[in-house]
Amino acid sequence: MSEGIIALREGADDARAEIAQMRAASDRRLEELEARVSAFPAYVAHVRASADRAARRGTLRRQALRIVFLAHNKDAWDSIGEVVEIMRASEDFDPVVVSVPHHYGGEAPPRGEGRMHRFLTERGIPHLRLRKDEHMWAEELLRALDPDVVFRQSQWDADVNPAFSADSLGWTRLALIPYETVNPTRNVPWDDPPVDSALDQHWHRAAWLVFCANDDVLEIARHRTLTGGRQFRAVGHPKADALRRAAPFWPFADDAAGPTKVVWSAHHSILDGWNDFGMFPRVKDDMLRWAEEEPDTQFVFTHHPYLRGTIRRPESGLSATDFRDWLDAWNALPNTAYWRGAYAPVLASTDVVITDGPSMITEAQVLGKPTVFLERAEHIEFNDVGKRLVRGVHRVADVAGARSAASEIFVDGDRLAVIQRENADHLFGAPGAAQRIVDTILAEARAEVARG
């Protein structure tokens, strides 16, 4: 009996050992399968990248290069509009503009294509439409167009359909004309690991060509991007040229020469943790008081397109109702206006600019307008371009300082006018940026075809 029990125990031990061996072998097999599955996306990406490179080698051989412009932001049209016009008049190019919906900051559902369509229609610009309820056909549309080069208005992939992302468009050549004239700040780090969001996002890295305003930006790109700025070309900026051409307009019926004219432009970055320039909640009541106390001065309030959306965020500390009540008080004055149209004509007409915006302190100097910079102490650091720019503006901490600086300008003129002219000449050069962009694309395409 005891021998039988011992035999059963030994048999059980042998069975357990065999099961353990089988389990270990199974675990190794599972690990091998998991490793293969984990490696599969990278393998697919590698194959796709190889196929994309092969597809690109077969392009640029048409008599007229087909250039597709994905347009979702009417406020940034001046960065690409003249380029489209020049290409339409040239036998070397076949430009196709497509109005597309946007997803600013990843918001859903997609929207805004109708506004872009109306904007282009009003200006007589031929274009195709990808309506918001057709967004699922984005990739199909673009592949049907078979472009040699694709321009997108924004470097941010989250702004547009995933089919228009840098990764999805590896099969064609990408290009970028930044929507801002020049970036004056050490941009907020983006992604993980962090990159310079103005120069080194995925779109920049994947781009065939990135156009920048001047050699200063080019030098920054050479030191702060993964690609060493190899795809960057310094050509000036079409938006600066559009500003120079702006016909003055002032939104008051009695636009006489007598009243002093002030444009107040507010930036959208009123929250904490981005670039932290926006001062609107801190200065709105003091600006209202200034307008009340100086009835002989005409004030036009305008703002960055994103400001109202930022105000609606709970952390803004300023509700939509608060803004509406303040705006009612502003509009009730006889010497104030709220302007939401194109800002360049108004900027061209004003005597002085009051702003907290990093882009506006640039663009006002292009037009030679005396500029008072309402500077929020905690804003991110200026880069070398920004350090040059702020030499041409009057830096103040509050509205009292702005009133004092404006008063000095009204009486004595702008002591910084010479510096402004030097800044504009240095940063943007002579007019003609759009033509230089078109010439660069054609030259680069021909050189690439010649290389085979």
Helix- and strand-based class? alpha/beta
Distance between the termini: 88 Å
Shape assignment: globular
Q: Over all CA atoms, what is the radius of gyration? A: 29 Å
CATH topological fold name of the largest domain: Rossmann fold
Poorly predicted regions: 42-54
Main sheet characteristics? 7 strands, parallel
Oligomeric composition of the shown chains: single chain
Mind telling me which CATH architecture of the largest domain this is?
Answer: 3-Layer(aba) Sandwich
Classified in CATH, the superfamily of the largest domain is Glycogen Phosphorylase B
Quickly count the helices.
Answer: 16
Percent helix, as a range, is 40-55%
Protein name: UDP-N-acetylglucosamine 2-epimerase domain-containing protein
Question: Which key features would you list for this structure?
Answer:
single chain, 452 residues, alpha/beta, Rossmann fold, 2 domains, globular, UDP-N-acetylglucosamine 2-epimerase domain-containing protein
Structure description:
Helices cover about 45% and strands about 15% of the residues. The protein is built from 16 helices and 15 strands. It has helices at about 1-55, 80-90, 115-120, 140-145, 200-205, 215-225, 240-245, 280-295, 305-310, 320-330, 345-350, 360-365, 385-390, 400-410, 415-430, 435-450, and strands spanning about 65-70, 95-100, 130, 150, 175, 190, 195, 210, 230-235, 260-265, 295-305, 335-340, 350-355, 370-375, 395. The strands form three sheets. The chain has a seven-stranded parallel sheet. Strand 10 (about 260-265), helix 8 (about 280-295) and strand 11 form a beta-alpha-beta unit. The longest helix is centred in the N-terminal third of the chain and has 56 residues, at about 1-55. The model is unreliable at about 40-55 (pLDDT under 50). This is UDP-N-acetylglucosamine 2-epimerase domain-containing protein. It comes from Microbacterium flavum.
